[in-house]
Amino acid sequence: MFGKILYPTDFSDVAEKALAYLKKLKDSGAREVVVLHVIDERGFDHLNRVMGDEKFEALKKYREEETQKLLSGVANELKEAGLKVKLRIENGIPVKEILRVEGEEDVSAVVIGSHGVSNLQELFLGSVSEKVIRRSIKPVFVIKR
Ligand code: ATP
Ligand code: MN
Fold this sequence. Notes:
- The protein is an alpha/beta fold.
- It has helices spanning 13-24, 47-51, 53-80, 94-104, 127-135; strands at 4-8, 32-40, 84-92, 109-113, 140-143.
- It has a 5-stranded parallel sheet, sandwiched between helices.
- Bound molecules: adenosine-5'-triphosphate and manganese (II) ion.
- The site of adenosine-5'-triphosphate has 22 residues, from helix 1, strand 2, strand 4 and helix 5.
């Protein structure tokens, strides 16, 4: 039923908690996990003006390389559990990219953390997870902090 799953991660503790759950979903028919990290371009693009094109491109490349390393760690863990893994890095606004990839990859469900790196105590949900839950057309499993 849940053959292909989208797992957006910001590498936060809550998002990492979802890994154990993803492994368990294998018993419910999960075969493949699309692991997605969105490099949030907001609060970053203005650096282009400050740094100039060359340094900015180098910084972008560095960020993507570091993301790739983190994603590889996640991939290894899921592969060890016998799941097929596809890694994706997108640049943009997290909610937008998550929903776009959800459609593009035609996944059967989304597994997301209730909170992420901010993890504010008084918030019921983080802003990314709230919007994904609202707008996703697929079932969303929310991993609580
Ligand atoms: P906020 O960002 O609103 O301050 P938060 O950081 O506590 O709050 P969210 O950002 O909503 O919470 O994170 C909830 C979940 O959304 C994460 O556990 C992760 O699964 C996913 N997520 C958040 N940001 C990204 C991102 N940049 N790329 C991929 N997935 C993300
Ligand atoms: Mn966040």
